[in-house]
Amino acid sequence: MPGESFYLCTPIFYVNDVPHIGHAYTEVAADILTRWHRQSGDDTWLLTGTDEHGQKILRTAVANDTTPKAWADKLVTDAWLPLLETIDIRNDDFIRTSEERHEKAVLIFLQKLHDDGFIYKGEYEGYYCVGCEEYKQLDDLMETPEGDFAGQLVCKIHGRPVEVLKETNYFFRMSQFQQALLDLYETRPDFIQPASVRNEIISFVKQGLNDLSISRSSFDWGIQIPWDHSHVLYVWFDALLNYITAIGYGTDDEEFRRRWPAIQIVGKDIARFHAVIWPAMLMAAGLEVPKHVFGHGWLLVGGEKMSKSKLTGIAPNEITDTFGSDAFRYYFMRAVSFGQDGSFNWEDLSARYQSELANGFGNLASRVVAMVTRYYAGELPAPAEYSEPDLAIQRVVADAVAKADAAMQLFAIHEAVAAIWTIVDELNGYITIQEPWVLAKNDETRARLGTVLYTAAEGLRALAVLLSPVIPKATATLWDALGAGTLGTLDDQLIPAAGEWGQLPAGSAVSPLEALFPRIEQEAEATAG
Description:
Elements: E1 5-14, H1 21-38, E2 43-51, H2 55-63, H3 68-86, E3 93-96, H4 100-115, E4 119-129, E5 134-136, E6 141-143, E7 153-155, E8 163-172, H5 178-187, E9 192-193, H6 195-206, E10 212-213, E11 215-216, E12 224-225, E13 228-233, H7 235-240, H8 242-245, H9 253-259, E14 263-267, H10 271-284, E15 292-296, E16 299-301, E17 304-305, H11 316-323, H12 325-335, E18 342-343, H13 346-376, H14 388-409, H15 413-434, H16 436-439, H17 446-467, H18 472-481, H19 521-528
Parallel strand pairs: 1-2, 1-14, 2-3, 9-15, 14-15, 16-18
Antiparallel strand pairs: 4-5, 4-8, 6-7, 8-10, 11-13, 12-13, 16-17
Helix pairs in contact: 2-3, 5-6, 11-12, 12-15, 13-17, 13-19, 14-15, 14-17, 15-17, 17-18
């Protein structure tokens, strides 16, 4: 029987351009959390996808002399699906808002809100940022004193001028849900995380909510309003619904009940959409709000958020081509406190790769496997009586399992990885102190040698299980080298049981192991330069 539902959604990403490492950062975090819960016995489902409607897509397509659908198809095929492969994302579904299954369910949702009186027709005039696909308040804008846009009001996020729009639109009665939202935030303080994002959202809602314009009549690239085909649905109202349309809302009630509600991992810049507009929409439809909305920080380059419009984005393959996907995944989850902003620089990535992955973890694995091969012809020795240093390693492993799991439940991925890494550090210290190469010289210490190497191998087994959600390729290679296949596949190992000692059978065939993280000083320096 599957365990508790763990349905995690990334935002769906806009296909007006190719992905950068900020998008990959979100995907990796979501993937690690889902893999962890999957290996904890939960009924997991990871959804990601692309947002393909709206004015920005239309303009980009026209600029590239093609149709919006053809442009979206090209970007999805050439850039967004390959991204998932590049960084080893194991998503269960990929939703596109141009798909029929999405549009069909959106129309059901929209008609319900209209029939229940939550949608009305009215006039709207305001500032609109095409980059954000969002109407802006004056507080969201700034006047630029110089440059190409001197004297104009520009979006604080995109740095580009906003447009003044005046239209007859359909509106969602979002203002009716102001108090219900504030009550939600108070009764479920962990609904929005981290605290910095929660406080910003509460402050925003307390200022008062306006009704939301949810249609546009000046262009036609979007889902038509079912009762008025001269209007298309506002792109954000359309996009947010993907989280329920992908799991059967309106079409597969059993699957929908199995999965919903979701956990939403988003960038903090779109937290308002997910923690204000989205729960208000769900309340209006009589549906449960998400379990959590977690707004993670930005990846900064030169002190600025990465941006396609400002040309500060770094393509993920610029990193993975040199360092590999495991290093990409590890670095961003270790170097950046999940939930806070983090700065990226090549020197720090290269340094952590060498010291932590190559020298710390990779060298540990290679040494242990090499010594079992050399001293026991590749057959894992049976341990004799455990002494205090051996028992200390067992306690370190058990403690790391508990601390890492507690951190993952709180979305503190960086803390979980740090807790797991204590095993790496302690095992390296253990081998240095126990000196198995000295024990191997004397028949009288042969039994002790077997215990030391078995302890080290068992520690590596636990590391393979605990780190498999983070660095899946290296841990799969290590799992095979340890001869751990007799325990089942690495994916089948339950994380809560990782600290149970003595799982590797004595006599297991240990095979030679090439460097898990090869030294790449020359290549890394060339990339950093």
